[in-house]
Structure formats: C-alpha cells, structure tokens
Write a structure and sequence with these properties.
seven-stranded parallel sheet; 12 helices; single chain; about 40% helix; alpha/beta; about 325 residues; binds nicotinamide-adenine-dinucleotide; UDP-galactose 4-epimerase, domain 1; Rossmann fold
Length: about 325
C-alpha cells in the first residue's frame, strides 16, 4: 500500500517508517519537522515527505494514497496543557479535517494514533476498549474528540481504526526523554539516581516503540470487517506496572543507580491498568518487548551515543525544545 505517515519525523514515526517499508509499504511522510534535529546517534534515513503543517494540508497531499497512518500531534500532557486551544486546533480540528480530505480522496483506511490515557483516572481494575473514557488533560480530551468525530465519518468506503497506545518506551533515533522509562533510564545513566517525582503508585501501561509500529502494520493488513471503526488498546498486560515498579527495572539495569522517590509532583490522577485481549484476538498481535529489556536497550544506547545532560533536558524533552526554538507557532 501507499501509506501517508503523518508525524514521520517524530519519536514513533522515525521507528515506524522503516518498519512500514520493510512490511512492503511505500511510505510518504508529512511533518512540520519540529523535532527533526532531535537525533541521538546516527542520522535516520527519512522517507520522502511533505514538510507541511497539519492545519494546512490540502487534497493534493492525499492523492494516490491508499491508507493514512496519523501520528502527528502535540504529543503529551505538558505540551497539550501549554496552550489548550492550540492542542484542540492541531490534535482535534486538523486531524478531523485530514480524515475528511482522506475520505473525499477515496482513502479507504485511516489509522489514528490514540492513547490509553483516554481512560484517565480508571483505578486498579483492568480497562478494556468499552470502558468509559475519562480524559483528565486537554491532550487526552483531544484524542477522545477525534475518535468520536471519526466514528461519525465511517462509511462503507472509509474505515477509521483507533489504536490506543500505551505509553511508549525504547530507543528511537529521534529520542524522547519525557516519557517515563526513557526519562528514568536517562537520569540513572547521567546521575546515578532514578528519580520518581510522584509517589510511585500510579499504574502505567507501557509498550515499546517497535511494538507500536507492528500494531499499526497489523491493523493495515487486517480485513476491513474485522477492524472497521474499532478501538484497540496497544500493549501487553505484563507491562502494566506502577511507576515504582518501572523504576525498579531501571535500578536493576543501571549498575550502581539508586531509587529516589521525591513525591514532589504531588498526586497524579492519571492511573490505569489496561486489558489488551481485543488486539490479540482480532489481529493476532502480541507486544514483544518487556520493560526490563527496554531499560537495558536504553542504557546501552545512551552510553553508546554519549547522551549529555544538556541534550537530555532540552533537545529530547519536547516542551523544552520547542520553548528553546521560540515556542509553538
Ligand atoms: N509516545 C507515546 O508514549 C505515545 C503514547 C500514546 C499515543 N501517542 C501518540 O502517537 C503519536 C506520535 O507520538 P510521538 O511520541 O512520536 O510524538 P512526537 O512529538 O515525537 O512526534 C509528533 C510529530 O508530529 C509532528 N507534528 C506535530 N504537530 C504537527 C502539525 N501541526 N503539523 C505537522 N506535523 C506536526 C511533530 O513535528 C513530530 O514530528 C502522537 O499522536 C501521540 O499522541 C504517543
């Protein structure tokens, strides 16, 4: 298939593009390039792409496209909360506009990168895709709004699919250090401390960036009738861990590091344990990477490529990087 991959120069997009190509797809990217220079290690080879803002996409960008994988977004809670109206403009309105253009152009499949944080404060029980959505941040709310609007757009010839990704981890050439495992390993390697800012009790489902890519590839290949207008949690139950348990894996991976739970960030309302049985049953998909293996992979990559404290705090932290570039436009 000819796949338009939005956000192809982001953390996940940079891992996904070569995996889509290896699965036999022709990939065309679309990105503003905000994080294109945020590279750790060798420069990645990006696919051909459009350097364009999602808010300015036209029907020309959708011609000759069989499927859209839509990853471009302001991609986390701190970014989303910085200027909520911009989050809704980009993450919600521009996403729905992209989907309309895609449907009008005859694109039959539209895979949307949603998030398990749509479940919000879900407590200790396992939540499946039918659980009530209780987003607690503008970022998560924007994802819910897109899902709702795309459900209303589904037709015989336009199949939206919602991939609710767990929190990602793992090495990408365009690293993000502001997601929990990547962050904790970075602190451990740079300072010998594994710093947990919450009280360590919130539940987080985690999934490796490569496993996310493979879930999208499976959703592209699946028969329409199986995936039409469905939501899928992307991850694996073994990686439903508390932040303190995640930190424990980091201490184990980074020799000599010590756990420090500061609690300075106060109570964190985002806590959810997730059920992944639907994606296993429908797509035969199982995430492969454990958090333990991911911590070792990150430790080795940070060490091999000489991660510095300055880059860890600025270049690889989405909010700090954009602030250093003059903010969002
Ligand atoms: N990383 C995670 O833990 C995680 C978890 C669940 C869902 N997701 C979703 O996956 C997607 C990708 O996340 P990521 O971690 O790669 O984030 P990222 O910030 O690394 O990448 C997002 C990409 O989108 C691009 N982008 C942002 N706004 C744009 C706009 N207006 N026009 C064009 N391009 C724009 C950015 O330049 C960037 O390359 C996002 O939709 C995110 O919400 C990520």
């Amino acid at each position: 298939m000819r796949v338009l991959l939005t956000g192809h120069q982001g953390y996940l997009g940079t891992v996904m593009a070569p995996r889509l190509a290896a699965a036999g797809h022709t990939v065309v990217g679309l990105d503003t390039g905000w994080f294109a220079p945020c590279v750790l290690g060798p420069e990645p080879a990006d696919p051909d792409g459009h350097r364009v803002d999602l808010r300015e996409v036209t029907s020309a960008h959708l011609s000759d496209v069989d499927a859209v994988v839509h990853m471009a977004a302001l991609s986390n809670d701190p970014l989303g909360s910085l200027e909520p109206s911009l989050t809704y403009d980009i993450n919600h309105h521009a996403s729905v506009r992209l989907a309309r253009l895609a449907a009008d152009a005859g694109v039959s499949r539209f895979l949307y990168a949603s998030t398990c944080s749509v479940y919000g404060a879900a407590g200790d029980g396992l939540v499946n895709e039918d659980a009530p959505l209780r987003p607690v941040t503008p970022y998560a709310e924007s994802k819910v709004r897109v899902e709702d609007d795309l459900v209303a757009m589904a037709t015989d010839s336009f199949t939206p699919v919602f991939l609710r990704n767990a929190t990602a981890f793992g090495f990408s050439p365009r690293l993000r250090a502001d997601i929990v495992l990547n962050n904790l390993v970075g602190h451990a390697v740079l300072s010998g401390e594994v710093r947990v800012l919450s009280d360590g009790t919130p539940w987080r489902p985690l999934v490796h960036a490569q496993d996310i890519a493979d879930a999208f590839i499976a959703a592209l290949a699946a028969p329409r009738d199986v995936v039409h207008c469905k939501a899928y949690n992307v991850g694996i139950e073994d990686n439903n861990l508390t932040v303190a348990q995640i930190a424990g894996h980091v201490v184990e991976a980074v020799n000599g590091s010590q756990l420090v739970i500061t609690g300075e960030a106060g109570a964190d309302p985002r806590s959810y344990r997730v059920d992944f049985s639907r994606i296993r049953a429908d797509l035969g998909y199982t995430a492969q990477w454990s958090v333990k293996a991911g911590a070792v992979e990150l430790r080795d990559a940070y060490t091999r490529y000489g991660l510095t404290r300055a880059d860890f705090e600025q270049r690889f932290t989405r909010l700090a990087w954009l602030a250093g570039q003059g903010g969002l436009r």
